[in-house]
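Translate sequence into structure tokens.
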Amino acid sequence: MKPIADKKKIDEVLGRGIVADIIPSREELMQFLLSGKRLKIYIGADPTSTSLHLGHAGNYLFLEDLRKLGHEVIMLIGDFTARIGDPSGRTTARQPLSEIQIKENMKNWVSQLRPILGFNDKQNPVRVVYNSTWLDKLRFADILNLASQFTVQQMIERDMFEKRWKQNVPIHLHEFLYPLMQGYDSVALGVNAELCGTDQLFNALAGRMLLKRLKGKDKFVITLKLLQNPKTGEMMSKSKGTGIFLASPANEMYGAVMAQPDEMIETLFIHCTRIPLAEKDNIMKLDPKEAKMRLAFEIVKIFCGEKTAYAAQENFEKIFSKKEVPDDIPELKIKEKKLFALDLAVLAGVLKSKSDARRLIEQGGFEFDGAIVKDIKAVLAVKNGAVIRVGKKYFFRIKD
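Result follows.
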């Protein structure tokens, strides 16, 4: 398939404001793309959680933009490297994952990304690969050869290793092997480009060096800005369970976007939608709530469809604007006829602990049949059909 070498379309992809850096240079990549040559580009992610989040989605949307221009796109799942654990940005070593955990984590990844990646395109489908395919086959002699390409000084210069060294926090030997293994992915795939977040630059450059030394071939490294709060620097994390997750039901996803701080609106528009930038600028002139509702609608539409996005918006307005109970709420089966408010809040199963439930109730975040309950020891007459609200968005109908 011959790629599209239209400068305007290429500028739209590279000029959205997502790209942080291009190595060796933006000019050389533009020259390559305008020549009509085809990129063979991949992005890798380790299955450290069952669900991907919007931070990943922004990267895959960028890849899909390139695929639509006719370039070869590869989605790599790091089922082998997940056994080591990526040390990037870590102040301590990651806990190794078992093969069973890894298989469980990654089994739904493709279905989560199906709405945004062209897996089923007949002419130019996205290819899915697993790095255990080649890393499992490496002999000890092969690993020694890879290790001989790097020095301890190079590894220690990594910021998190340097910090841990100074703080006398253990650095495990297997952590040094991670960039070798991830770098070898580029060699095994024979790519000419890699896409990654800025936090993965060291690993991507390790792959670029190995590709040059072992195959005599160069590759572009395109780093994308991380999806982080512009004020606090906080990022979404699949391993920590924080973020807006792609496996979420539509109503939950819509509500999670609405719960984001106002300073995240523009960042999410740029990374996680394909609204034209001029239109985005006009939306940003609206009241923050209106802008956020448009953002939530666009994101849910991408992953769940337009009809479902309208339903999620209507559900949100019903709950938060009109203060109504949504029509379709889950049932909570309870046999007891009387319960303390604290116990009932915990039984709903959406709070992490009793202390969280206690704090929520005392702050007025718990309702029983339309009445706010602030006393954790209030005795509630549990009856069939009664509705409880836990926090702002969780409703349950009691069934005995």
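Note: The CA atoms of residues 264 and 371 lie 33 Å apart.
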